[in-house]
Every structure is written in C-alpha cells, then in structure tokens.
Amino acid sequence: FGEEEEPLHTILGKTVYTGIDHHWKEAVFATCGQQVDIWDEQRTNPICSMTWGFDSISSVKFNPIETFLLGSCASDRNIVLYDMRQATPLKKVILDMRTNTICWNPMEAFIFTAANEDYNLYTFDMRALDTPVMVHMDHVSAVLDVDYSPTGKEFVSASFDKSIRIFPVDKGRSREVYHTKRMQHVICVKWTPDSKYIMCGSDEMNIRLWKANASEKLGVLTSREKAAKDYNQKLKEKFQHHPHTKRIARHRHLPKSIYSQIQEQRIMREARRRKEVNRLKHSKPGSVPIVSERETHSGSVK
C-alpha cells in the first residue's frame, strides 16, 4: 500500500492506439488505431496487422464463440470483420453514418449489434450484411456504447442524450430507460456477468450501478415472496396486450430535453411518412417501390 506499481510488460507502438480487446481463450490480444494489430502477450512485435481502408479505427471486439473472428469500426463509416487464422479482412459493410462500437452476441456466434451516430442501433447477421436483422430506435442522440447481457436476450446502450436504455434483441423499442438529473453524456456501459446489474460511466466522472430489472427486490426472498413474484409476473404476461396494462408497462418519466426531442422526431417521421404515402397515391402503380424501415437503413457490403 502506498507503493507505485510498475507494469510487467510495456509495448511501444508506432501509432496511437484507440481500442483494445483480449482473446477469449488464448494469450492473444488485439489493438486498433491506424490498423488492427494482433499481439502475443510475450512479444513486442505484432503477430499480424490487418487493414482495409485508410481511416482510423475506433473499436475492435473479439467474438466470444467463434474466437478467431473479430470486428472493428472505423471513422469512414464502415464495419469490418476479420479472420485471425487467415490474417485477412472478410467483409465490410458501410452505413450512412459512423459506428462508434460493436458488441457480439454471447449466445449466437453470427449476430452483432452496432451503436451508430444516427441515434439507432443495428443488429446484423454477419452471413447477410445487406440488411440489418433489427433496427433499434429510441435514443435521441448518438449511441456511444453497447453491451450484451450474458443470456444474449437483451443488450444495454449508452447515449450522448444522458440516458441508458435496455433493448430486447428481437424488438425495435427499449423496455427500460435509466437517467438521473446529475448524469451527463454516458460514455461507456457494461452488463455484469451475473446478469443482475448494469454499470455505466459518464462525463461528470461518476460510475453508476443499476439493476437490470428495476422492480426486482435485492437480497434473499422467502418462499411466499417468490410465489407472489411469479404470480404477478404471470398476470402481467397474461394481460400484456390489454390497452391499460400496455400503457402502464410502457410509461416512463423522461427528462424534458429528451421528451421534447422525441416529440420533434415524431413530427419529422410523420411528415416523411405522409410524403411517401402521397407520392405513392399520386404515382403510376408500381413506379414507386414500397421500402420497409429495415431496408432504408441497409448499407453497402464489400
């Protein structure tokens, strides 16, 4: 205590490093900056270097199941997937705006979610990158970080709009939003391995711990408390489609800034939809294609 600790091993790189991630099984880690470098823990030179394009790479993540796969996002709006065995890039998808980071699903090897600057999150299947599997829309500012729960059924996102949201993987809207009056722009977020808590770090230099289920009781439950909890949960599931039950389940108190931005974006969306309907109505049948919401966000794959 009180003594300065020195690092066991120091690596001097030729460029600035903007991201790092460790292999899930082997003593190998990856860094990114001007290129993606794969390092052995005992060596001072990278095993291999991979690049596709000339822009700086902001984030790199190893796949937890297919551990030889890794993905990165760069400032030229692309997401690149690499194969460590061949030491070559596999595929690249270019979106409309920049992706800040990606996170792999810990239960499905081919699924990953990208946090984008256009306020949305995109879940992709790496076998078919033309169109996202799901577009998750609820944030009103750039999404800066994303992390999956250990079950792979939900993920949490951190945004520049001073809130974090929990999304089910198969739904486009969030089931929960967390915010406080003092919390500023949320930079990073992590889901704990026991799947019960969420940690986030924000601009005002605080780390916050949240419950993954806001109404869950902490501590030991008696048998009667467990039975009552299960019974109430079954009641919620049974009547989840009733209008009053649905309204109560979806209602969340939001800060005035977020609420006003949601209203503004809703007006803009309705105006765009009205314009598309009018164009379709007054055009020759078949001349104007009907494009789904997912297809409007599709990127070009190389």
Automatic annotation (TrEMBL):
GO terms for biological process: rRNA processing. One of its GO terms (cellular component) is ribonucleoprotein complex. It is found in: Nucleus, Nucleolus. The keyword ATP-binding does not apply. WD repeats lie at residues 136-177, 179-220. InterPro entries: Sof1, WD40/YVTN_repeat-like_dom_sf, WD40_repeat_dom_sf, WD40_rpt, WD_repeat_DCAF13/WDSOF1. Residues 275-284 have a biased composition (Basic residues). Residues 275-302 are annotated as: Disordered. Residues 212-297 form the Sof1-like protein domain. Residues 292-302 have a biased composition (Basic and acidic residues). Keywords: Nucleus, Repeat, Ribonucleoprotein, rRNA processing, WD repeat. Pfam families: Sof1, WD40. Its main location: nucleus. Belongs to the WD repeat DCAF13/WDSOF1 family. This is DDB1-and CUL4-associated factor 13-like protein. It comes from Equus caballus (Horse). The lineage of its organism: Eukaryota, Metazoa, Chordata, Craniata, Vertebrata.
